[in-house]
Amino acid sequence: MSNRISKIANVIIPVSDQDRALQFYTEALGLEKRADAPFGDGNRWIEVAPAGADTPIAICPPGPDGTAGGKDTGISLQTDDIEASHAELKDRGVDVDTEVSRFGDAVPPLFWLRDPEGNTLMMVEGS
What we know:
- The chain has helices spanning 18-28, 82-91; strands at 11-14, 32-39, 43-49, 57-60, 72-79, 95-96, 110-114, 120-125.
- It is an alpha/beta fold.
- It has a four-stranded mixed sheet with strand order 1-4-3-2, covered by helices on one side. Strands 5-8-7-6 form a four-stranded mixed sheet, with helices on one face.
- Strand 2 and strand 3 (43-49) form a beta hairpin.
- The N and C termini lie far apart (37 Å).
């Protein structure tokens, strides 16, 4: 059997208000808009990503059996300075954890943040 999977195309966060989500992900988090195109019955396909990243985040309406908001996305974003990122996002009014979590040497410092619809992402320090 050959493996035809070559990469992760995108990850999807279902949202009810795409304009508000786009503003949050680009202005508050500083991601770049990669795509914003109509699809389906009046919907939009919107992708955002860190500059230079291979895999974008699609912020789209939920599918027919899905719901928007309140998801643990499983998405982790990397920063080279966790303390500065935490402080900057807090200053921008982003719903971030009260403090950076430190679990010991094997786990890098991290914190969780929530978008305006209550979807949770993790910010982790890396090099």
